[in-house]
Amino acid sequence: MVSDLTWRRRELTTLKFMIQENSAIHKKNILHRAAIALLYSHWEGHVKHCSLVYLSYLNSLGLHCDQIADNFIQLNLSSYFDVNLSMKSTKNQKAIHDYFSRLSDVTFKVVENKTIDTKSNLNSEVLLNILSQLGLPSNEFELKSTLIDTVLLKNRNAVVHGEMLNADGLRNTYNEIEDDLLYLIETFHNLVNSAAANGLYLKQ
């Protein structure tokens, strides 16, 4: 995870210097547009990377479900039951009952890239779902939901769909995102790292 964060930091810092050093308004506008899209790509990219690495680590531990936190027991259901499972069937009801009755015999094992879904649109709702899946606190991100949804996502979507944004709007959007987004990326990184290092995935 560290190497992934390092190259993203380096790329964002390089882009920041490019914008600062370029005085031509037209070129600055182009760089701001590119930067908004790039900032989003690093946001989604590192959140997904950390989440997949964390689940891969948990898979490698071979823990039984009676040893892990409830959110991971729930997450593990997807490895045993179809998403369209009908609860009207007594056979299915029995299967779920049996699953929870024999947690000490059930090994935690999920398909990482099928479990974590950023929906190519990592807004606050999608992010909070991922945090819940991983059993991580959401306070910091809830406070920044307007930045994520209204500033980052709205403008990123406008840029990638070819909409024209005025120079002042581009500059203000970039400045606001650039100030806070790396902090949010690092916060997610640190939460995952701390959870893994301190065994927060274990049943308390």
Mind explaining what this structure looks like?
This protein has 204 residues and is an all-alpha fold. 70% of the residues lie in helices and 0% in strands. Helix 1 (2-21) packs antiparallel against helix 2, helix 2 (25-61) packs parallel to helix 9 and helix 8 (145-160) packs across helix 9 (167-197). It starts with a helix and ends in a 7-residue tail after the last helix.
State the shape: elongated
Averaging pLDDT over every residue, what do you get?
91
The biggest beta sheet, please? none
Q: Cα-atom Rg, whole angstroms?
A: 20 Å
Please estimate the helix content: over 70%
Unreliable residue stretches: none
Distance separating the two termini: 26 Å
Structural class: mainly alpha
Task: Give a brief description.
The protein is an all-alpha fold and 204 residues long.
Features:
single chain, 204 residues, 70% helix, 0% strand
Topology record:
Layout: H1 2-21, H2 25-61, H3 70-76, H4 90-101, H5 112-115, H6 124-134, H7 139-143, H8 145-160, H9 167-197
